[in-house]
Input
Amino acid sequence: MNASAYQIRPAIEHLEDSQIVDVWKMGFSIPDVVGLWVGEGDLPTTKFVCDAAAEALAGGQTYYTYKRGLPELRHALIDYHRDLYGIELTEDRIAVTSGGMNAMMLIVQMLIGAGDNMVCVSPVWPNIYRTVEIMGGEARQVPMQGRGDGWHLDMDRLFGACDAKTRAIYVASPGNPTGWVMPEEQRRALLDFCRARGIALLADEVYNRLVYNQRVAPSFLEIATPDDPVFVVNSFSKTWAMTGWRVGWMVMPRSVVPAIERLIEFNTSGGQPFLQAACVKAVREGEDWVKWMVARCKSGRDLVLERLAGMNRVNVIPADASFYLMLQVADMGSALDFCKRLVVEGRVGLAPGTAFGAGGEGYLRLCYAQSNERLSEAMDRFEGFLRRT
Ligand SMILES: Cc1ncc(COP(=O)(O)O)c(C=O)c1O
Output
């Protein structure tokens, strides 16, 4: 069969490539770049978690398993949520997924059909827009504004973007790339709006532990009942430095459990039991490690903020969560072109804010989940590059 004998659905053929990946790929052919562009740190997964996976693998945990994940892991997550928020989940509402990404895709597959829309608070990790587009829906972006004291969301604008075809509202708090944490009053207003309108609330909380002024960021799970239309997505990727493992989870309303279970069967048919066995260890025994990692990120954030404050063309929007900062450079021109030049001429990797949708224009995203040595080197190079250009 030749290529013209079959067709790619237009929704798939026209999916936009990620601009983050565009710049990141340039680094493959340029040695010695300090990459602060992608959303992960420089730490490998801690040893006791890796050992647990190897042990489970050697012990024969290699078969198909429960669609919603090992019961031991779901019970460990129930204890984890109780410890963090003082809430009592039931195991049926939890599904272990192939990363937060797969959880998002499953929820969108369940909710969005052709002609429907999802309203997304932006700028945000762009993959959520693409999940909606894959389903033939429209991802509507409601941009926040960056100011000297952080990022701000206009709730009237958010509610005004919803119409009869709105099936879901997506909010990432803490946010990527902004580090924004949705204020309490706004969280309550959003939940009330979703209840009243029968709109699902997709709360992306994968950065809930990456906060520097409290132990954990507030969760929608603290204010929602099991029957509210609230889906909370989380992941092992960021909190336990396990990006490559591809394990995450969702907490869903009781009524949709059979539908999500069905979708898991036809997407991944369930996850890998030997990885999930190690995730139990991470959840049950990883707290000291998480605290150490968060303190390390905070130190990285403080270092970067201090260095950027000394560069007179640079303006940074402050943030107390996630592991990113958004910054502006005076007279930078196109952010994508600037990032490409910075890689080649400055040997530093940043992501263009335009990659994250509306509200990201004019910004650069920097991920500071790195050692202080690497961050200092990156800041030296960045400062030198700014002086030369
Ligand atoms: C806001 C947000 N949500 C979800 C994810 C998905 O993470 P993963 O699929 O690795 O769990 C990311 C990853 O960068 C993210 O930034």
